[in-house]
Amino acid sequence: MVQSVAERIRAARRNVDKAKKFLAKSKNPHKREALMRIIATLEATSNEPMRRSTTTSDTVAQARARARIAAARLDEMNRLADERAIREAFEQEARSAVGQARKYHEETVAAFTRAAATHRDPVKPISPAGTWQGKPTSRPKNKFGW
Question: Whole-prediction pTM value?
Answer without folding.
Answer: 0.33
